[in-house]
Write a structure and sequence with these properties.
Layout: H1 9-22, H2 24-35, H3 45-53, H4 56-70
Helix pairs in contact: 1-2, 1-4, 2-4
Length: about 70
């Protein structure tokens, strides 16, 4: 999920945890969904840039909600 390239440690941690427990493709597709990007399941440069541009609190909250809905 390329968490090391995400500026916010909280967002990176949430995405890594999501990937660990639900699978990399699932976590990536959910991240892409909250960013309004194509859901490929592969985290690309554009996805990383978009995630880093999004307010970290908003990104964390959306990822958290997506993870809870997935469970």
């Amino acid at each position: 999920v390329r968490a090391g390239e995400i500026k916010s440690q909280e967002v990176a941690g949430m995405l890594a945890d999501f990937a660990f427990h639900s699978g990399v493709a699932t976590a990536t597709k959910n991240a892409q969904r909250i960013l309004g990007r194509a859901e490929t399941g592969r985290m690309g440069e554009g996805d990383i840039r978009a995630l880093n541009r999004l307010n970290p609190g908003l990104a964390f909250g959306r990822l958290r909600t997506a993870r809870l809905e997935y469970l």
